[in-house]
Amino acid sequence: MQLSHYNSNFKKQKHPITVICDNVTNAPNIGSLFRIADAFNIEELIFCGSDISLGKRMTKTSRSTEKYVNHCFNEAIETQIQNLKSKNYYLIALEITENSQALSEFKLQTKQPIALILGDENFGVSETILEQVDAIVHINMFGNNSSMNVVQATSIALYEITKQLNS
């Protein structure tokens, strides 16, 4: 018998993770980020940028999770980064760079709360932000493309980070 959220045995557990989205503006992506934030029960979802809207296209994919996922909107990601740094967050950027580490090999060795930083849907995490983080991780790609959709990448990263937090 297939289980639903009414009869599954999943244990509710909050994870000390904040996801910061830099200029993620695609409505279905925003809705899906709310769903994944709920699925992993993270602390907060922060949207940075000036063109973010929560319309019908977003709510279609969010399945009402925006009603109970803690979230906020802020124009400047730099302000959010400084705020989380002052609160002793461990900042992880999800980006492919010359010195990024494969997520599959990354070992989380901190008890600090975590901020996972997602880049602009077209341009990734900016150099300015990359210079301020504690770690840069990437997902190994085995096909022709060098990137994947922000939601799928976030799902993979949150799975790996929460797995390490729970072990």
Structure write-up:
By secondary structure, the protein is of the alpha/beta class. It has one domain (15-165): Alpha/beta knot (3-Layer(aba) Sandwich). 30% of the residues lie in helices and 21% in strands. It contains five helices and seven strands, in the order E-H-E-H-E-H-E-E-E-H-E-H. The chain has a seven-stranded parallel β-sheet with strand order 3-2-1-6-4-7-5, sandwiched between helices. Helix 2 (56-62) links the parallel strand 2 (42-48) and strand 3 (71-74). Helix 1 packs parallel to helix 5 (150-165). The chain is globular.
Topology diagram in text:
Blueprint: E1 15-22, H1 27-39, E2 42-48, H2 56-62, E3 71-74, H3 77-86, E4 90-94, E5 101-102, E6 114-118, H4 127-130, E7 135-138, H5 150-165
Parallel strand pairs: 1-2, 1-6, 2-3, 4-6, 4-7, 5-7
Helix pairs in contact: 1-2, 1-5
How big is the Rg? Answer: 16 Å
Largest sheet: 7 strands, parallel
CATH superfamily: SPOUT methyltransferase, trefoil knot domain
Cα(first) to Cα(last) distance is 29 Å
What structural class do you assign from the helix and strand content?
Answer: alpha/beta
User: At the first level of CATH, what is the class?
Assistant: Alpha Beta
Shape type: globular
The CATH topology annotation reads as: Alpha/beta knot
Strand content: 15-25%
Question: How many domains, in number, for the residues?
Answer: 1
Low-confidence stretches: none
CATH architecture level-2 label: 3-Layer(aba) Sandwich
Number of helices: 5
Strand order in the sheet with the most strands: 3-2-1-6-4-7-5
Mean pLDDT score, rounded?
Answer: 92
What is the share of helical residues? 25-40%
- The count of β-strands is 7
